[in-house]
Amino acid sequence: MLVAPAGTAADARNVLVLYSNGRLVPANVDVERGFKSSIVDSADRPVEIFSEFLDYPEFVGEDYENTVTTYLRNKFAKRPPDVVVAVARQSLDFLLRHRAQLFPGVPIVHAAAFRAYPNPFPTLPADVVGVPVEYDPAGTVEQALRWHPKARHLLVVTGTTPRDREWETLLREGLAHFEGRVTIEFLTGLPTDKLLARLRGLDEEWIVFTAGFYQVGDALKYTPRESVEMMAKSANAPVYGTFSSFVGTGAVGGRVPSFAATGQQAGSIVNSLLDGVSPASLNLPKVMLNELNVDMRQTRRWGIADKDIPAEAVVQFRQPTFWEAYRTVAIIGGTVILLQAGLIAALLLEHHRRRKAEMALVQRGGELAHASRLAIAGELTASIAHEINQPLAAILTNADAAEMILHSEVDRREDLQMILTDIRRDDLRASDVIRRLRTLLSNKAIERQSFDLTEIVSDACAILQAEARRREVTLVVRNAATPGCVFGDPVQIQQVLINLALNAMDAVAGLPGDRRTIVVSVEPEAGALALTVRDRGPGVAPEHLPKLFDSFFSTKRRGMGLGLSIARTIIEAHGGRIRVDSDPGHGTVFHVLLPVHGESTIPTTTLA
Ligand code: ADP
Predict the structure, then answer these.
(1) pLDDT tens across 91-102, in order?
(2) Does the Cβ of 500 fall within 6 Å of ligand 1?
(3) Is 487 in the pocket of ligand 1 (CB under 6 A)?
């Protein structure tokens, strides 16, 4: 004989939970979860929970109910339940009908029993207790209309099983008062493909509401949850429904009872009953609270702002906000951006300072170049004075001659005419000298422009010729036959040429007549223009060559040693190069290479 060990099944309280539908219907899974979580199962009062399923609506009818009754009675004959829990109305109704044959006198706790379906809720004996559920389709539609202000039509989808028909009746009554605010269309029992095609054709003016269905036009196929999943996939409008188990299928949700909460509520009633509390003395709420249950993926999909979801709503599939999702990345990113911004600001400041310094340098350079031009002018004073004096003297002579002619008796108008022509020519010559000099000595900001190198070389040589004559040096100018354009400041280039030419004149000073020739030439040289100043002086001592372009290097008694250094600065600022070729004892050639306007650099072949 089998003897049950003490403290196990023999002492355990048995609870039978009878579900209306199949085992895997999601609502049942939720109820069970809530129920089990709240049952107090302790060592001094162990609880055994058994679950049975009526598999409604697939299995219905008198014969079926009788079979199940016999089965349950026999099955639990040896371990009769202390409490029976009826999940949903079909189970409650079944138990009330067959109570006498099944478990007479055993209290019944109902959970998730819909109060208004089938209508009316039965009058319950004192030992049948629970908190009924009242669905709130109107509350759901009201909320949906607030969220979708463009909605003009409500499409209500129902099925064809008796359960589906009951829902249809309920929804027709429960939603009738929306007529006027929106048009309401019921789609009942359409074949699946037609139903889905219809749902696909909806637009933003529509809202779909459904209790799900077991059957549409075809054979029994679905659980309500599956049917909603299928509808939500196709619908081009938000789908709302009657059960919390629809959340997660693609439906937005609804104001619905929570199945887990109904399970929990039933569990706590069962605890009291097992503790010996009499059913009649229980003080229970009249109805389960409905909660707004939503799927955040769907609220976002249908444009419902997070802030418009009431704080008390049960939000599932919560989508993190940008801040929640990327907090670390955002903090790191923000810090990096701030650091970068700081770095950029510092660099900009540095850049600004450097530009200011560069500008100052350019200005200093400009001032230096100008000072150097003034020095050149100083050197040229004698020849310039001569250049101006000559035409002035000629003008005076001519004026005297004219006066004499005027005092003579003879009519010498033709001579007077010639004298006036000479005076005009001499005047032009003098003013030409002054113009060139003014240009050279001007302290204007660097004016970059395209200019003809041959032209400004001729101009500078006009000034130099007088100096050359004064020093008894022959200045030969060999200008290129065709104009050659250079981009830059013509005055500065003239300054370089004058500097080189004066150095050359210095170099040949005191040498025999045949060596006192300097040649200035301009000629194209492989994409560049070469300006050369050649003399037949003593050349540069090899040890001086590396220092020749340094500031303040001079071998002259009164030299400043700035001419060549300024020349190199000017030429390099023009994108050019300056170099010297010296043949000690025989002469020196300075080569200045300037890029032809349009070519930004000098071809490297010319630099070799
Ligand atoms: P400065 O003419 O005031 O001395 P530069 O910078 O113009 O300053 O010239 C620097 C030095 O280069 C000169 O002192 C001279 O020694 C040398 N030099 C310049 N041109 C020639 C030349 N054509 N022949 C020989 N030496 C030259």
Answers:
(1) 999 999 999 999
(2) no
(3) no
